Amino acid sequence: MKNVQSGLFLNRIPYVRTGGDSRPIVVLNGGQAFVRRPTPARAIRDARRIARLLPSDHAIYILGYEQSPPADYSLDTIVRDVAQILQDETGPAIIMGISFGGFVAARLAAEHPGLVDRLILLVSAHRFSPEGRRSIDRQIECAWQGNFQGFLEEFGLVFRRPWLNWLMRLRFRQERPRLHEMMNDPAIIVRGLSAVAGEDFGSDPSWLSRVRAPTLIVGGTRDRFFDVEALQETARAIPSARLALFRHETHMLPVERPRGVAKLVKDFLKSSSSQRNGSLREATVPP
User: Fold this and answer.
1) pTM for this prediction
2) Domain total of the chain
3) Do 153 and 251 have their domain in common?
4) CATH number, domain at 126?
5) Are residues 255 and 147 in the same domain?
6) Is residue 252 within 8 Å of residue 150, measured between CB atoms?
7) Neighbours of 42 (CB within 10 A)
8) DSSP codes, 181-231
9) What's the pLDDT score for residue 167?
10) What pLDDT is stored for residue 276 in this prediction?
């Protein structure tokens, strides 16, 4: 990854920029951006992981989240910040939301359609699955208690490949003595996760009908945070949506199947037509 730049938007929102000069892609990262203490090395590592999913000729901006969020931090706060960044800094862009970031991306597209050229929801939907919601609630409880080991263990067996789960458990054991140094302040973690978990998105998905951008939704059929039902519900509610389901893949789909995801994204961005008038195009990608 060349030509990497980093800085702050609005003097408080960290970002990393890479790629070329074509129409910008703005990436809204997952909730892990709240969890660990931010470091330049971690930001670059995350940017490399995300950039390989996107065409390198685009200007790619990977946004973080406010490092000291206020007590009244909410999804609306984050959406306003991103909208201002698009208006003042990057211009209208292709928006990709990963996991937690998908909540922000979808709401942004609904409330500021003129700023979103295309929308990509990666391992994300407009709501959590019931199991995913319970997991987020337990993570918030562990964070409040300063129980970082319990917080990390809540992720469980998130990979499809057993050896990756084994490596993750080994890493957790190795990091255990240093968790309080590596993890963010509990209040920041709670405020970040609560910004999304504090809302019941599943009660009324009608706001998704205001999304006008052609939309690609990519998920795994074994994702415990966003199950197939949630993904399909989101796709049906967005007037111009394509849904791609990777069979047997989990929430770590972008890590385990980066080439497959990158191909879908590239094809979507190159295509000139889209499904409109409420029609849904769904495809299943084999293992």
Assistant:
1) 0.88
2) 2
3) no
4) 3.40.50.1820
5) no
6) no
7) 14
8) HHBPPHHHHHHHHHHHHTS-GGG-GGGGGG--S-EEEEEETT-SSS-HHHH
9) 65
10) 43
Cβ(215)–Cβ(222) under 8 Å?
Answer: no
Summarised one tens digit per residue, pLDDT across range 99-112 is 999 999 999 999 99
Identity (one letter) of the amino acid at 269?
Answer: L
Each residue of 163-177: pLDDT tens digit? 566 666 666 666 667
Residue 149 lies in a domain: yes
pLDDT for the residue numbered 202: 60
Beta strands in the chain (DSSP E): 5-9, 13-19, 22-28, 58-63, 93-98, 116-122, 215-220, 241-246, 280-285
Please identify which residue in the block is written with the tokens 């065409």. 55
Q: Please report the pLDDT score of residue 91 as a whole number.
A: 96
Give the residue numbers spanning the domain of 146: 132-192
Domain co-membership, 214 together with 227: yes
198: in domain: no
Residue 207 identity? W
Which has more confidence, 61 or 72?
61
